[in-house]
Amino acid sequence: MKTLHERLRQAPLLLKGPGKGFLFLLVALVSCTEEAPVILSIDPRIGRIGEILTIEGKYFGHEQEESYITIAGTPPTAAAYLAWQDDRIRIRIPEFGGAGLVYVHREGKKSNPLLFSNRAAIPEPAPNMDTALIPKISSIKPAAGSIGSLVSIRGSGFGASRGKSGVFFTWHAEAAPSVPAEELQQKMVEVFEAEFGYELWNDWEIRIRVPDGAVSGNIEIRTPQKTSSPFFFNVTGKPGTKTFKEKRSYTISYAVDIQVQEAKAPNSLYLWVPHPVSSASQWITEPPVRNRKPFVENYQGTTLFQLTDLGADTGAEIRLSYVVGVYTLETDIKSQSVRQSGGSPIRSVYTLPSPLIPSDNPAVTAHAQTITGSEQNPYEKARKLYEWLIREGGIQRIPLRNGVLDALEEKRSDPYSASLLFCALARAVDIPAIPVAGVLVNRSRTASRHYWAEFWIDGFGWVPLDPGLGAGAAPTDFNLRRDPGTYYFGNLDNQRIAFSRGQGSLSQMDPRGRIAVRSRDYALQNLWEEAAGGLESYSSLWSEIAVTGMYTQ
Question: Among 123, 174, 196, 266, which residue's Cβ finds the most Cβ atoms within 10 Å?
């Protein structure tokens, strides 16, 4: 099988005669403009060697030819490939380490990555495990880097796969003057999966990306057994600063009540219950309280519960309680220092269109180009899009139930459609952006659903904005900041709790299961419930978020 380069090199020999030179040039130009492959999903995300992995996306090519995939940098053998289509690849999972990124390679171009984990390598803690296995860092290369840059950590005792382990960077928040110096503790922020932070993990090497919110200071590797000695890392190249201050803690509770009408064994009901997200400005500060043991802990931003063999005319309940610490986040960016860099997985994934964010729609792309004009700086482009939204987006508090395209055409939106519209416009001009869903908390401790957004600046991290509050569309009795139009671009108050950043893409547990979806809720995810087996008829009641405690520090 000849490569593209070989075929083009031989083309003049095959295309002789009048007009053939032009034809060869046309072929070469068409070949050079082929799109890079794009991965939209992989299934399963966690699998075993020998199982079938399905990769869905586009621009893979109608035949494999010289194209191939890699998992954690390892290409499978030719015999592993089962099917290759332009939008789907099926392959038997080869032998590799614990976890790694999946790429599709075609004609010298590489796709965006998605993380795949080897289920067999996920460790099961054994009783009487040797607690002397202490992770040890021997080197970090490079010794300095910016937010989002790739770093290799070498040493020993890291574990065959990540499991419940993590890499933590120094993080800093302003403390209130009333806090005694002896009570100040150094906090650390973990590498985030949502930022494709973990690229490789084995017993002697970890490759990670510097997380949003990290500052110069110590790095630690924490495993279920031990924590490594700290190792210094210098965070450099920031085009500005982030300030975390005015911490506010919330105690929240919510529940799901199930009533079964018709059922016969065996049956299962799966519930993906959102929990507050962890980010540089929001922390789960105490272990959660739940009345049932989860089926899977922290499953892509949710807690997965399984109810089995439910009987007819019976009920079940899941109750959860969390303590969440939220900081006011303020940014100060020198826009002239902002630089775009290629090859980032964040840029590859969070500029793609989706059903919720139709950034490839002609009307969206045309408006985005008109609004941003000749501006090339991504930070200033984002500012122009935000200012256009709060000025001409017709944002109101009352839910309109319209989507992105309706909001754009009618110039009428609510916080939900405004946040999605910003993301669509931003992605249309190559700015990575994600919607955020959660609740706002007013002075009477009432929580109401709300939506905002974040966009990514290379070397700096995520920048928040809230078009709804920027336009003044705040709930009753909410402490809206002065000059909201200016404040809510780049800054965010501490009167909110986020439950999802981006849209959660969850996989069914049973291919024959019957799913239920909840739209415009306090989290953006594609699955909420799945009934399988003999569970014929049931009803579910998801409570609102109740704020049972609130205090400042």
Answer: 196
Establish if 129 belongs to a structural domain: no
Say yes or no: 57 and 201 in one domain.
Answer: no
Do 531 and 422 have their domain in common? no
Task: Mark whether 155 and 230 lie in a shared domain.
Answer: yes
Instruction: Say if CB 224 and CB 165 are below 8 A apart.
Output: yes
Structure tokens at 3: 């490569």
State how far the Cα of 45 lies from the Cα of 206, in Å rounded to an integer. Answer: 19
Residue 127 predicted with pLDDT over 80: no
Helix, strand, coil share (%) of the chain residues, nearest 5: 20, 40, 40
> Beta 46-47 vs 114-118: how paired, if at all?
parallel
Do 351 and 479 belong to one domain? yes
- For residue 465, give Cα distances in angstroms to 82, 187, 386: 45, 25, 8
pLDDT confidence of residue 26? 38
- We report the CATH number of the domain holding residue 42 as 2.60.40.10
Q: 378 and 511: one domain?
A: no
346: CB partners within 8 A, 6+ apart: 148, 195, 196, 432, 456
Lowest mean pLDDT among 45-49, 138-142, 193-197, 523-527: 45-49
Residue 29 has pLDDT above 80, yes or no: no
Q: How many domains in the chain?
A: 4
Identify whether residues 467 and 353 lie together within a single domain. yes
- Strand 52-58's sheet: what is its strand order? 38-43, 52-58, 88-92, 81-84
3-12 long-range contacts (CB < 8 A, ≥24 apart) are 3/66, 4/31, 4/66, 4/107, 4/108
Domain span at residue 216 reads 136-237
Mean pLDDT score, 238-265: 95
What is each CA distance from 146 to 196, 213, 234, 435, in whole angstroms? 15, 11, 8, 24
pLDDT digits (tens, 9 = 90+) for 299-347: 888 999 999 999 999 999 999 999 999 999 999 999 999 988 777 889 8
Look at residue 21 and tell me if it is in a domain.
no
Cβ(481)–Cβ(472) under 8 Å?
no
* Cα 83 versus chain centre, distance: 29
How many other C-beta atoms lie within 10 A of the C-beta of residue 72?
A: 22
Q: Are residues 77 and 169 in the same domain?
A: no
